[in-house]
Amino acid sequence: MGVRLMVVDDHRLLAEALASALKLRGHRVLAAAAPAAGAAELVITRAPEVCLLGTAAPAEPGIFDPVIRIKRERPQVAVLVLGPVPSPRGIAAAFAAGASGYVRHDERIEGVERAIMKARAGEAAVAPQLLQGAFSELLNPAAQPDDEGQRLLQMLTPREIEVLVRVADGEDTRLIAAGMGIAPSTARTHVQRVLMKLGVGSRLEAAALAARTGLLDRAGPLPPQSTGAEP
């Protein structure tokens, strides 16, 4: 017996292609929609048995907010996330939001269908190898190449990191210079180098990027205030 489905993805072409493939396999697709940001309203209105929710960034903060709302207002709907190879944080975030499973974008249609049936039956639908990989990363927490905060931190010198922390604390050029014991012109140069390395156009953007990526948490406390001034 077919499953009543909805397919939601920011890429309409992918959503429609998957919907067509599932229709050919006997499932009733209520809608194939984009963008994913409007998923919650659509699912709450249509009330499918399973919603396939595509995402390109499973670890992005707030990406699974639609899942939280769907499970709050339509707890009987099973949400199956479709995404890239996830980080442990991505898998954890999906299940914490209430998702019933996680399927990679490159999975064959047979694998997607098996996950759909499991999700409808109330079972967790996630490939064992994905869980294995997640547990392996959690048990061996080396710095990951997709860790943006770590990558940005490695681009900055210790002095530039201190400048960024002071910028994030709201210090202007005069305060940065006084706190670091350097001339205001030198402080201004450091700030400009930090902005250039981070690829942002303002101090506000730099502070927001540092906070979002966790860079500030990694930077540690500021050193004691310097007493002399560099030229």
TrEMBL record:
<keyword id="KW-0804">Transcription</keyword>
<dbReference type="Pfam" id="PF00072">
    <property type="entry name" value="Response_reg"/>
</dbReference>
<protein>
    <submittedName>
        <fullName>Response regulator transcription factor</fullName>
    </submittedName>
</protein>
<feature type="domain" description="HTH luxR-type">
    <location>
        <begin position="149"/>
        <end position="214"/>
    </location>
</feature>
<dbReference type="Pfam" id="PF00196">
    <property type="entry name" value="GerE"/>
</dbReference>
<dbReference type="InterPro" id="IPR016032">
    <property type="entry name" value="Sig_transdc_resp-reg_C-effctor"/>
</dbReference>
<dbReference type="GO" id="GO:0000160">
    <property type="term" value="P:phosphorelay signal transduction system"/>
</dbReference>
<feature type="domain" description="Response regulatory">
    <location>
        <begin position="4"/>
        <end position="120"/>
    </location>
</feature>
<dbReference type="InterPro" id="IPR000792">
    <property type="entry name" value="Tscrpt_reg_LuxR_C"/>
</dbReference>
<dbReference type="GO" id="GO:0003677">
    <property type="term" value="F:DNA binding"/>
</dbReference>
<keyword id="KW-0805">Transcription regulation</keyword>
<dbReference type="GO" id="GO:0006355">
    <property type="term" value="P:regulation of DNA-templated transcription"/>
</dbReference>
<dbReference type="InterPro" id="IPR011006">
    <property type="entry name" value="CheY-like_superfamily"/>
</dbReference>
<keyword id="KW-0238">DNA-binding</keyword>
<dbReference type="InterPro" id="IPR001789">
    <property type="entry name" value="Sig_transdc_resp-reg_receiver"/>
</dbReference>
